[in-house]
Design a protein that fits this description.
Largest sheet: none
Number of helices: 10
Distance between the termini: 17 Å
Helix content: 55-70%
Number of strands: 0
């Protein structure tokens, strides 16, 4: 799509969300976002494609993407992480449900150390009890950290293949979100 989620170029995303420049070193390019993302994946630091996707996706979709990425690594996660992923799944299904919000808020650690803890924090990012908005980082920062922390658990031999699959999943989600927004506009 030429106009992924309202950004004509990767540079437009960097301008709209300056925090992305604190999470990645590659300079913004004047190419379409998904083209830029694929170039990052093929570049020197392919992990930056994960970062870019996390910021490109709308918040709820980014949280779901993080959930799905980590669900594919379930055998590398502790039981606690799997429990957190279940709570994230409930929240994504009904983000406005006070029960889901309360369940997340009661277990989220504002200093996460595990992959799913980062994703849970991204789901609870707007909860005033955590004061995460004052950090200047959007929830995408936590999604990015969660996915990359999960990738660090993958064997070196398999890491690029898993990273590529995660980025392709993110790209597909961007395309679906762009299509959904286009339909909603009519």
């Amino acid at each position: 799509m030429a106009n992924e989620l309202g950004y004509r170029t990767a540079r437009d995303l960097f301008l709209a969300c300056p925090a992305i420049a604190r999470d990645m070193k590659s300079p913004a390019a004047a190419q379409p976002p998904l083209e830029f993302c694929r170039a990052l994946l093929a570049g020197r630091v392919p992990e930056e494609a994960v970062t870019f996707c996390a910021y490109l996706l709308p918040e709820r979709a980014a949280v779901w993407w993080g959930h799905e990425c980590l669900s594919n690594l379930a055998e590398l996660l502790a039981e606690r992480d799997l429990e957190l992923l279940a709570l994230v799944s409930d929240w994504v299904g009904e983000p406005g449900n006070p029960r889901h919000r309360a369940a997340l808020s009661s277990v989220v650690d504002p200093s996460p150390a595990t992959p799913a803890a980062w994703i849970a924090l991204s789901a609870a990012w707007r909860d005033p009890a955590f004061d995460m908005l004052s950090t200047g980082f959007p929830a995408a920062h936590a999604v990015n950290a969660g996915i990359l922390t999960g990738l660090a658990r993958v064997s070196t031999a398999d890491r690029f293949a898993v990273l590529s699959a995660f980025v392709e999943m993110g790209i597909q989600m961007v395309e679906m979100e762009a299509q959904r927004q286009s339909v909603d506009a009519y």
